[in-house]
Sequence to fold (467 residues):
Amino acid sequence: MSKLNKEECRAYLDKHIFVFRDSDYKLKHPKWPGAVGIESELMYLNAKYERAPLFASGGTVDLLLPGNGRDDGWQGVGADGKPATRNSEVLKIALDKDYITFEPGGQVECSTQPYPCLDQALARLKEVQNTTHERMQLGGWSPLYMGIDPWHTVEEIGLQVTKPRYQKMDKYFQSVSPAGRRMMRQTCTQQTNLDFGPNEDTLVKRYMGSQMLAPLATALFAYSGIVDGKVRDEDSYRSRIWREIDSSRTGLVGLKSVVQKLSKQSCVDTYLDFSLRAPLVFIERSGQYIETSGVDFETWMTTSTESPTIEDYKLHLSLLFPEVRPKGFLEMRAVDGPGRAWESVPSAFFTGLIYDDDALELVIEMMMPEIENLPILLSNAMFGLREQKVAELSKKVMRIALDSLARLPSCYRDKEVVGAAHAFYEFFTERNLTPAAELKARVKKIGKLNFAVIQSLEHDFQEYMNT
Fold:
């Protein structure tokens, strides 16, 4: 068998990563713009602000596993993909085609399958979360919706998921920067997953537009300004963490080249170059994870005696974390975990701007002069809306999103979701505020962070939305 080569990697990206929307979708939904999936991470704590242990009696997995007279279709799944009923074996809990997984620090991630429209995806996410909250409440645990754990340090949380993949990631990131351990243990995000559309022109525009939106989405929805019990200058400390992890596998990818060539091939080629330049973290052989020397993937591929395969490349791709990650769809990774009261707004924002053709054209036209400055905008976005250019562009794009939601088919603009989006703009954005900035102001006023001040912010937002 010949060694893996660059052309095979390119072919894999072209066939499996940058792909057009499933043709069945158009047959079933000829007037709809695309499917929507959502992945939402959060934490559970008790009244003493202790984090819920993952694998322990009365802990997260124990409470979420099927049993105790429940027969509602939930199923524990082990590393081999087969049903599992013991804490130590469970890697995820499947709910039909939706599922719950666990991040390295014990964060709980609820992920929906791709649903035909936004309203269905949001409704299913809420349903899964509500059931999860009910079960966790049996152990005295309550959900914390936020982009970072504001109370507990990296050492206090520890590595709760100790499967070999995370152990190797932990070791690698620690060798690069302390930020990697923070990312794995403390942070939460919400990812909106959208398809590439039915043709090359749409694919290119959606990939361009989604990357252009990343800095503005980071700023608008910043909600991680308190870390290790301290109020930080940043509104999105989670974004700072991602800036400091490993620049070879994060950030924005090849946008200038895509803008110049406007082809699917340019999308593939720029991502190929990005992936080949990134250091290899580890490889897998016979179920064992083997550390590598830290060379970039292309060097390892051409010089290694390990007989590199396409499976090695697929594993490597899963360890790249750009702001928009192509995975056969667009995975938007720029948003801090939002507050529960405005949880629907980031997905409505992305869906409105990417799935409405007029809105997407406006975004591209507005952001094209900023192509050279996008890395700077992304860096400044961690401070929310305090930098003038970030604030100006964020306000404009939020107004475009609000207009575009009204043009989408009815299944994408539930009245409550649209109301939450308008309320978010008026309550936060229009006043040059982010959720983090408002929370930090309230914390400074009373001198401490507790559940009550977080709940007061969500309550006030909800009251504003209702009026």
